[in-house]
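TA notes, week 10

Several of you asked for a full example with nothing omitted. So below is the full record: structure tokens for the whole chain, then the designed sequence directly under it. When grading your own attempts, check the secondary structure regions first.
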């Protein structure tokens, strides 16, 4: 196998884990491109990306451009003399960047393309009640997530899967697929397939609007939405207690199919349980975070907090 000079581009934990896998497999990672440091927290301490932290631990050269078209960045990138670039959870690249290496630039996407192109594929697969998803490697072209597919691997989504558990499964599956893709490129054994043209499901960026729970939705839809956003960024709601409105994030839940006559959003609570009436049944809340309080299990919350008889989710 030809030993390729690889430049890796990525930012979050998902990408850092795959970079670590490449290094552990003794691939020649000659440089890393990641997001610029950002101030965060109350003290506005400069926060470094997970990819940067790992690259520093391995003494891998790091580039942190704010402008991917700047001459200084393009010159520094060219100086790394990459044969191949790998992109995992990064930004859209200009053609000057993705077309630079002789072996091209490929991306790992956490879905079975062409399904779930976009920023949040793991979340939306669960939110939409999919039974399977996977990972795809593809060569980057001038559109988002549309390039020719190199390899795909599929995985089942269980009935109780959360975005947290599925994220980790896809991260490990993706690491194996990336190394397999590099080997096939190095051995000149790549056979790509064009993405089929069909009405695809998209994975748009998560916003306060599309992460709010609609308690008039069917039981299954609400259940899928909550687990598809658990633990990050978490589905949220407004709770009306007497004349007060409190925002809350909802994490672990169970669904209970049942016939009832309650209005949707009605809260039923006692010392041991907290559930909300919806179409076709109830959502039993196991973990919740009220505004201004820490995240806690329902029993702990109910030890010191009482919901009024007319309390409801809005």
């Amino acid at each position: 196998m030809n030993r390729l000079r690889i430049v890796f581009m990525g930012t979050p934990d998902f990408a850092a884990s795959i970079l670590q896998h490449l290094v552990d497999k003794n691939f020649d990672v000659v440089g890393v491109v990641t997001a610029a440091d950002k101030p965060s927290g109350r003290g506005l301490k400069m926060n470094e990306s997970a990819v940067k932290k790992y690259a520093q631990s391995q003494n891998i050269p790091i580039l942190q451009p704010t402008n991917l078209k700047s001459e200084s960045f393009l010159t520094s990138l060219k100086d790394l003399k990459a044969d191949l670039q790998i992109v995992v959870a990064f930004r859209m690249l200009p053609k000057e960047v993705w077309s630079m290496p002789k072996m091209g630039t490929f991306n790992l996407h956490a879905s079975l393309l062409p399904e779930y192109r976009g920023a949040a594929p793991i979340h939306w697969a669960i939110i939409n009640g999919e039974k399977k998803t996977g990972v795809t490697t593809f060569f980057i072209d001038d559109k988002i997530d549309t390039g020719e597919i190199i390899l795909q691997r599929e995985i089942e989504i269980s009935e109780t899967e959360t975005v947290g558990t599925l994220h980790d499964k896809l991260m490990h599956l993706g690491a194996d697929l990336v190394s397999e893709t590099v080997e096939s490129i190095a051995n000149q054994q790549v056979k790509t397939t064009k993405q089929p043209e069909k009405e695809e499901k998209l994975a748009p960026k998560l916003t306060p609007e599309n992460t709010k729970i609609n308690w008039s939705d069917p039981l299954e839809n609400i259940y899928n939405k909550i687990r598809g956003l658990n633990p990050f960024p978490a589905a949220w709601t407004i709770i009306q207690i007497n004349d007060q409105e409190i925002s809350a994030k909802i994490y672990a839940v169970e669904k209970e199919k049942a016939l009832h006559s309650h209005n949707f959003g009605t809260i039923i609570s006692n010392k041991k349980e907290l559930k909300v009436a919806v179409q076709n049944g109830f959502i039993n809340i196991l973990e919740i975070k009220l505004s201004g309080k820490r995240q806690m299990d329902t029993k702990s919350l109910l030890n010191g907090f009482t919901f009024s008889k007319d309390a409801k989710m809005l």
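The first strand starts at residue 5 and ends at 10. Use that as a sanity check on your answer.
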